[in-house]
Structures are given as structure tokens and as C-alpha cells.
Amino acid sequence: KKWQPRYFVVKDGFLFYYKAEEEAPSLEIVRNCSLQGAIPLRDMVHEEASDMHTKVQYYFKAYPKATPKDSKVYRVNSSEAMQQWIAALDDAGQYAPTAS
Fold first, then answer.
1. Prediction pTM value
2. Which residues, 6+ apart, have CB-to-CB distance to 20 below 8 Å?
3. What φ, ψ does residue 84 adopt, rounded to 5°?
4. C-alpha span between 17 and 10 (Å, rounded)
5. What is the CA radius of gyration of the chain?
6. pLDDT tens per residue, range 17-54
């Protein structure tokens, strides 16, 4: 698979993604933007994918607790960035709205 760069925003219990930073809305404005997708963070597992690391890139994965095979893999440039993303996603998932 070929990696596709994306710009991510964590807000209101979702991970929103865009093709580029300039396409993402400000944190106050969420309408009329080129949203590529939104991933609900409630009941998701976020963990390091250490078997995929290289010297310059680090990977983590996210998947629903109920269906671990449905994982998505993310790539960042440092171990610190990876840990920050995992912590931010875990934290946002705790406050995500429940399905009604």
C-alpha cells in the first residue's frame, strides 16, 4: 500500500481527517470544509505498532474493541509524536458521545 498524507483534527470524540492542513477548518468553524472522513473514538484501542518501526518513522494502530481486524495504521516521525497521538486519542475516546 502507498501511504497517503493526511491532516488530522481530534474534536468532540472524533478523529477528523483532511487531505491537507489548509483544507481543515479552524477549530471554531466546521462547516463548508473538505472533510475526507471522521472516525468515532469511543470504544477504540490505540496502540504502538512496534513491529513496523524504522529508524525515522514510527507507527501506531487504532481499531474497534469489538473488531480488532478492522485496524487502521498511522505513521509519524518520532516516538514522542506517536505517544502524544495515542494519549490524545485515548483521552478523546473517553469523552466521545455514545451512540443513541
1. 0.78
2. 5, 7
3. -65, -45
4. 9
5. 14
6. 887 766 555 544 455 567 888 888 989 999 998 888 78
